[in-house]
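Blackboard transcription, Thursday session:
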Amino acid sequence: MNDAVVLHFDVDGENFTSAGEASVQVKKTLRQMGFPPEVIRRVSIAMYEGEINMVIHAGGGKADVTVDSDKIHIVLADKGPGIADIDLAMQEGYSTAKDNIRSLGFGAGMGLPNMKRYSDHMEVESALGKGTTITMDIYLS
Amino acid sequence: MTVEALAKQLSLTALCLPEADRTVEGCYCGDLLSWVMGRAKSGDAWVTIMTNINVVAVASLTDCACVILAEDAQVEPQVLEKAQVQGINLLVSQKDSFALCAEIGALLS
Ligand SMILES: Nc1ncnc2c1ncn2[C@@H]1O[C@H](COP(=O)(O)OP(=O)(O)OP(=O)(O)O)[C@@H](O)[C@H]1O
Ligand SMILES: [Mg+2]
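(Written on the board underneath:)
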């Protein structure tokens, strides 16, 4: 089994109702492929946080998931406002979410820390006014 | 203890129970979704006052056994529909989060 499975999603920035749909779909696919529950949990939670961030902070974006023999590779790319200070954004509790978003239960400033925690490797690239690309790897040992 | 048994013991109202036989192994209480995402464990009963559509995704991805809505929190029909489709047990109670967690704690110990 050398062929990698590739999943692609367009994440709609307008639609809160479907926010998280890509992550739920990935969870389903990984389950069908027979991955252990803990791997599925880590992948889908890390992806959900990134997906929601694209909806809330960047007006949507694209998500690509590659299932390889040794790792699951996630790329989340948006053309939003970018992140001015990545180190600051990575801190637990830091959030710029507005009140209307907070009233939905978001804005704890735990999304990026969760992504870091649940992935084995994570990189954040961002340029102000251009967008943000986050890559995450979860190794299959 | 199954979700169904828990519902009976705590006199919860079941809004939808697609997985009534699931076992409740623990409990987590919280309303900040990414906090719950980072901390709730598979098999937990999740007690919250949040009822928007994102609750269903969080419940599904953390694989919690059920969501218990405290203080009679109201749910939109579209949220219920989604919970049913995604196999999320959704229950509601008049009690507040503290009372619910205290009772669940006593039942599970
Ligand atoms: N894709 C993105 N584009 C622009 N800014 C972002 C993006 N992702 C995160 N940020 C910035 O980083 C901050 C921290 O993100 P993080 O996900 O940790 O918390 P949050 O989304 O504000 O709240 P939570 O995830 O707990 O609901 C955000 O408030 C926002 O300012
Ligand atoms: Mg976030």
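Lecturer's comment: Chain B has a mean pLDDT of 96.
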